[in-house]
Amino acid sequence: MAVVLVLVVIAVASVLFHLLSPWWWTPIASNWNYIDNTIIITFWITGFVFVAVVLFVAYCVFRFRHKPGNRAHYEPENRKLEFWLATVTTIGVVAMLAPGLFVWNQFVTVPQDATNVEVVGQQWQWSFRLPGANGQLGTSDTRDVSSDNPLGVKKNDAAGLDDIIVEGGELHVPIGKPVKMLLRSVDVLHDFYVPEFRAKMDMVPGMVTYFWFTPTRTGTFEVLCAELCGVGHPQMRGTVVVDTEADYQTWLEQQHTFTQMMASGEVKTTQ
Amino acid sequence: MVNIPSSIDDTIPAAEVEDVELYHSHSWWTTYVFSQDAKVIAIQYSLTAISIGLVALVLSWLMRLQLAFPGYFAFIDAEHYYQFITMHGMIMVIYLLTALFLGGFGNYLIPLMLGARDMVFPYANMLSYWLYLLAVLVLVAGFFAPGGPTGAGWTLYPPQAVLSGTPGGNDWGIILMLTSLILFIIGFTMGGLNYVVTVLQGRARGMTLMRMPLTIWGIFTATVMALLAFPALFVASVMMLFDRILGTSFFMPAIVEMGEQLKHGGGSPILFQHLFWFFGHPEVYIVALPAFGIVSDLISTHARKNIFGYRMMVWAIVVIGALSFVVWAHHMYVSGMNPKFGFFFATTTLIIAVPTAIKVYNWVLTLWRGDIHLTIPMLFALGFIVTFVNGGLTGLFLGNVVVDVPLSDTMFVVAHFHMVMGVAPIMVIFGAIYHWYPKITGRMLDETMGRIHFWVTFLGAYLIFFPMHYLGLLGAPRRYYELGETVVNPTSAHDLNIFITLMAWTVGAAQILFLFNAAWSLRRGKESGGNPWRATTLEWQTPTTPPPHGNWGKDLPVVYRWAYDYSVPGAPEDFIPQNQPDPERRSKEHST
Questions:
Q1: Facing residue for B360 by CB, picked from A53, A77, A78
Q2: Residue A271: is its pLDDT beyond 90?
Q3: Considering only alpha carbons, which residue of chain B is nearest residue A143?
């Protein structure tokens, strides 16, 4: 009987824990509330199945536990029942997969008007690069990384000269405009993760990865690295500030371009 | 209702080959140490696996200390923390679970359940164990090497695994880890070929494939999968070893490490991930399928009822095994691979849920209208159902590509895979040990200690991993030495971490009781007799218990029926052993 009681308590307490626990996702700050909705659907379906199975087991133990003289029923197969259970399961799976794939399609389809923002990871800090007046990012190569050019921007690519470089500081993005994050690493795997944005993606040396989102509320958010990158992994933090358009422009004007950065570097070396 | 006839074919075929003389040992050394008897090898495998598993258990205690009381224990610095989590993960997945299910239970049960005298290649079987032991020793050597073991995480992702920012990356740690894996795979291949050929060629007369117990189906399918999946890890390990030692660039693109240009260039870190998970996902089922098989037999035996839908169960095992080779990239949704892959891998992953769900239904439908004996193996089987259903369902979150995006690399993942491939299979391992210990030793494990062990382990493990999902939902990333002050680490989460750590220590301590029980019962346990559970399968029908070398005495058993003739209407007992002829057949045979 203890078994029956414990099984029922597990089913009920798990549901209560889900409903009452203080640990729930952070208030969302991007357009990916579709993802949250898909999680909610999945919780409903899986929660129902979990409770149903555990309570069914509890009932079986209660009703069919051994008593002297009992004998089990002999029934090797029941094709009809197995067919129905498989069908219902398939429907449940489709109910989760369909919205999932639908939202994934949105996730991988970057809007035409998205602004490019580059994030560069290195052990153990974040840097950022924004397109300058010409609206596009210059090319880059890990081979060009040096102490005065930490992001490896190609000096002979005119498109990169006006790029805005933000080193080890904080990134600002304007609210309400889609952003395409171009992710790059110069050493090991990292992962650009802001819990409030829901989206994340690994940064892989040797290639450029991406994801997109639209910030939906202003505020300051912490960037965490979500892919183990060595002993400094937990210290690899950064900041993203979602600004109003006016605040964003003010911030943008204070930043330095790649040309300015190179010049100040030369000043340093000639002294 | 379809009745599976207990005699599908009316005649038992004659033996295809004569009984081959076994290798007989001549000394204590060749009987108990360099043994070629699968039962001895099974015990060697099991004891080694459990010993190294205890090391991994202690490592989990230490990492939980850090998570509950960050920075309080001076000897757990960031380097050590990452070394602990890496070794814990690798040991548990490969050196404990894989070795125990296939090397341990596989060796013991395949010949006995199939009515064979031994594995078909006993010498290779012996080598398999000694290579496994060597692999374990090389792995342990990492703790004593300069720089300590690798701290790259059990997934060993390059480039960080072989660079100086990671513990053991430019020291001995990663070299010893990769060498140990290579040795393990060579050793496993020798054992694995044995298991497959023995199942295909060594079965007793009358033991058709569709009469095999599900335990054997699970171990057999898992072994076939392992033989196909481990080569991917083998190749990846060799290539990474070359990258580390010879300076090749299989997985190494152009890299600037701490301001210095490295000589590497042109390699692909993502290639490693594809190879790793081409092994790594089947690996989940390499652990799960033997557990599925064993728990089916535990439930059937202790509920005194045939397993419901045997044929569907067999096909579900085979289909899950096949599908598990086309889902690997669901571990890589946010790896930076082409995101279009997500559509394919999410679909294949969720399709696996259907045969898996069928297995769950058939387990619970076996309980329905059964005669449930709440023995300790049955308790563990029930614990398995709860934890497996829980862990399996959260897999539907992570498999569904877009849902994985916020949850990947968080504590949700840690909670999920511990529940589904840690706690659930270990429930089965314990159930199986309580179930087969009497056959191995001739004595029962102590019931009272067993019950305490079950309740603490089951409830404790559930209390560890169920709430942990919600830390991940909150956004707490995994593999963090310390989270510090952040929005995803409120005070309440800190309290929860202390609770989880207390539970982890409690569950770990309960295993001491289990070990004591296993040692104590060896001499003091109640004598069990040959078939204490009144089970149908062949291993319980041996002439002597524990079974001697050669298992069966003079004559090999002959199989007349499937493995699940429990509570057959009209039969005098509630079980009919597989080697018991039908009364009608016996008269038929006599008359001819």
A1: A53
A2: no
A3: B254
Cis omega (within 30 of 0) for bond into A124: yes
- What is the complex's ipTM, to 2 decimals? 0.95
Say how many residues make up chain A: 271
Quote the tokens at residue B592.
């001819």
Contact between residue A204 and residue B270 where contact means Cβ atoms under 8 Å apart = yes
Angle at B410 (CA atoms; ends B406, B416), nearest 5 degrees: 105
Identify from B341, B360, B397, B400 which residue to disrupt to test chain A contact, counting A C-beta atoms within 10 A and taking the largest count: B400
Q: Work out the average pLDDT over B55-72.
A: 95
Mutate to test the interface with B, among A26, A30, A56, A93 (most CBs of B within 10 A): A93
φ/ψ region of B479 (left if φ > 0, alpha if ψ in -120 to 50, else beta) reads left
Residues B282 and B221: beta-carbon distance below 8 Å: no
A237: Cα within 13 Å, side-chain hemisphere = 15
Sorted by sequence, the CB contacts under 8 Å of residue B268 that are 6+ apart come out as A206, B250, B251, B253
List phi, psi (to 5°) of B9: -110, 145
For chain B, the helix, strand and coil percentages under 3-state DSSP, each to the nearest 5: 65, 0, 35
CA A172 to chain CA centroid, Å, is 18
> DSSP 3-state assignment of B581?
coil
- Torsion, Cα B198 B200 B206 B211, to 10 degrees, reads 100
Interface probe with B: pick from A43, A60, A235, most Cβ of B within 10 Å: A60
Whole-Å CA distances, B548 to B7, B122, B195, B543, B578: 30, 15, 20, 9, 20
Q: Using a CB–CB cutoff of 8 Å, tell me whether B32 touches chain A.
A: no
Are residues A225 and A190 in contact, defined by beta-carbon separation less than 8 angstroms? yes
CA B480, B280, B319 angle in degrees (round to 5)? Answer: 135
Which distant-in-sequence residues (6+ apart) come within 8 Å of B236 by Cβ? Answer: B272, B275, B276, B279
Say if A38 is an interface residue toward chain B (CB within 8 Å).
yes
Q: How close A262 comes to chain B (CA, Å)?
A: 17
Distance of alpha carbon B358 from alpha carbon B553, whole angstroms:
40
Mean pLDDT (whole number) for B448-458: 97
The SS3 call for residue B191 is: helix
What is the distance, to the nearest Å, from the Cα of residue B489 to the centroid of all Cα atoms in its chain?
33
Looking at beta carbons, which residues of chain B come within 8 Å of A82?
309, 312, 358, 361-362
The pLDDT-based confidence of A192 (bands split at 50, 70, 90) is very high
The structure's pTM equals 0.94
* Cβ neighbour number for residue A146 with a 10 Å cutoff: 12
Residue with tokens 């070299």: B175
| DSSP count for chain B of H helices, then E strands | 17, 2
What are residue A219's DSSP bridge partners?
A242
For strand A179-185 and strand A115-122, is the pairing parallel, antiparallel, or unpaired? parallel
Using alpha carbons only, what angle is made at residue A105 by residues A24 and A99, rounded to the nearest 5 degrees?
Answer: 55
A-chain residues within 8 Å CB-CB of B385?
53, 57
Q: Are B499 and B424 in contact (CB under 8 A)?
A: no
- Give the confidence band of B434 by pLDDT, cuts at 50, 70, 90: very high
CB pairs under 8 A between A and B: 329
Alpha-carbon B492 to chain mean position: 35
